[in-house]
Amino acid sequence: MRTPVLVIAGAAGAGKSTSARAIAEARTGIVAIDGDVIAAGSKAAERRDYVGFWGYTLTLAAEIAGNGLVPLVSCLCRPAQILANDLSSFSHLSLLALVCDPRIRRARVEARDGRPSWRTSPEDHDAIDAELRRFQMAEPHEYQVLNTTFLGVRETTSAAVDWAQTVTSAL
Fold it and tell me: What one-character-per-residue DSSP string does 96-150 give?
C-alpha cells in the first residue's frame, strides 16, 4: 500500500517546524524532515530551482515511504512547485498550509533567539502566505488551510497533530 506524502507549508513564523516536530512526537511511523535541512544538501535549492528542489525532496520522501514510514516535510513553498513533480510513489499529497497575519509572523520571526531572521524578504513571505490562502488543489490530493494568527503554540500543534491523524488514520 502506498502512503501519502505530508507537507506543512507556510511563511516564516507560521508554525511549520514546531507543528512538524509535534506530529513526529505524537504519531509513530511519521518521519519529519525540515525543508531547510534538505535545502542544505540540494544543489537545486542553491540554484533557486524550487521545482528541482521538490524533485530532490520527493526522492528522499519516497525512500522514507519505501521503508514503511510516512514522510512529513515542513517547508516554505508554493504548492505548484510540488505538484510539478512526479508523485506516483505516493497515494496522494496532503498539504497543510499554515497562514498568519503578516504583522504577527514578523513579530514571531524577530523574537527568535540565535536563528536567522529571514532567508528571503518579509515581502516574499507575505506573497507566499497570500498564495496559500487562495490556492486550491484537485483530487486525489488534499489541501487544508489553518490560520495560526490567533492560535498559541499548543492550539496550532494540536490542530496539526489532528490533521496528520486524519490523513494517516486509514493506513
Answer: EEEE--HHHHHHHHHT-SSS-S-SS-HHHHHHHHHHHHH----TTSEEEEEE-TT
| Phi, psi of 143, rounded to the nearest 5 degrees | -135, 130
In our burial notation (b when 16+ CB lie closer than 10 A, e otherwise), range 93-132 reads: bbbbbbbbebeebbeebeeeeeeeeeeeebeebeebbebb
DSSP state of 74: E
Integer Cα distance of 28 and 148 in angstroms: 25
Distance, CA of 78 to CA of 135 (rounded, Å) = 9
Q: In what order do the strands lie in the sheet with 70-75?
A: 30-34, 70-75, 5-10, 93-99, 142-147
Cell numbers that stand for 103 in this block? 504583522
Cβ-based neighbour number of residue 84 at 10 Å: 14
Q: Name the CATH topology of 5-168.
A: Rossmann fold (3.40.50)
133-150 confidence digits (pLDDT tens)? 999 999 999 999 999 999
Q: What is the pLDDT of residue 46?
A: 66
Contact 125, 77 (CB under 8 A): no
Residue 68's Cβ-count burial label (10 Å; 0-12, 13-18, 19+) is exposed
- For 87, the 3-state DSSP assignment is coil
Q: In which residue ranges of the chain is pLDDT below 50? A: 118
